[in-house]
Amino acid sequence: MNGTELPTTRRLLGKLPFVDPGRPPLPARTAFLTGASSGIGKALAAELCARGYDVYLTARRIEVLEELRAQLTAAFPQRSVTVAALDVTEHEAVARTIDDASRQFGGLGMVIANAGADDWGNVGEGRFEAHRAVVDVNLLGAMATIDAAVAHFRSQGGGQVVGFTSVVAAAGLPGGAPYCASKAGLTRYLQSLRGELWNSGITVTTVAPGYIDTPINESLGDKRPFLIDTRTGARKIMDRVESGAVHATVPRVPWTVVEYLLARLPTRLLRKVHA
Q1: Is 56 designated active site?
Q2: Of 56, 179, 189, 211, which one is the catalytic site residue?
Q3: Sorted alphabetically, which keywords does the UniProt record give (predicted)?
Q4: Least confident of 7-21, 61-75, 203-217, 259-273
Q5: What is the pTM of this model?
C-alpha cells in the first residue's frame, strides 16, 4: 500500500464503528515498546523496523535487549534502535523513559504497552503474591505506560496508544483468575480511555491475541488451538494497528468468533475450558 492509498483507506474505514475517525497521520514513524526482549515483543521489534519505524525498546533484561539491538541494526542499518532497561511496575521510571524516547526522536508516533506476565493456578492455594505480580505487570504496568503516553500525546497533538490484552479477557477461565482479571481490567481501561480521546487525534488500539507461540504459553503444549508463530502474529498485529483498528483480535479469524462465544458461555461450560 503506497502513501496516497493509506489516507483514503483510513477515511473509508473511519466510517466504521471499530476505527477511530479522528486518527490523523502519525507525527513520526517512531515506536516505544515495552516487553521487547522475547515473545511477541521481540517479533514486533523486528516487524516495526521492517516497516520503517525507528524504535525504542524496553524490558527488564538489558543484556537480551543489547543482543536484539545488534541483530536489528545489522538487519536494518537505516533504522535507529535504542534499548533501555525498564520494569513497568516502577511507574515513575516508565514516565521518565517515555520522556527520554520522545527527546531522542523529537516526538513519538506510537507507544505499545506489551509487557506481560503469567501465572496459572487456583485461587486459595498459597499463590497470592504470584497472582498479585501478574496484575502489577499486566494491568498497573500497562496503565502506567499508557498514562505517560497519553500525557505525551496530548502535548504533542496526536499519536497512537496500543495496549495488549487477550481473548481470555472475555471470560474467567478456571486456573487463570489473575491473568484473566488483569486482561479484562486493561480491556475496560482502554475502552474508557478511547471514549475520553475519541476524535482527539490520539488513537487507542486494543490488541487481543489468541494463541501466539511465546514463552508465556509454551507450557500449555498442544492445548493451544489455532496457534500461530510470533513472526506471523507480529505481522498481523501491525496490519491491524496501522489500519487504526480500535479492538483487534489476532488473528481476526477465528478469534473474533471465539471471543464472542467465550463472553457468553455459562460457568458449567467454562469449567471445561482448560488453558
Answers
A1: no
A2: 179
A3: Oxidoreductase
A4: 7-21
A5: 0.87
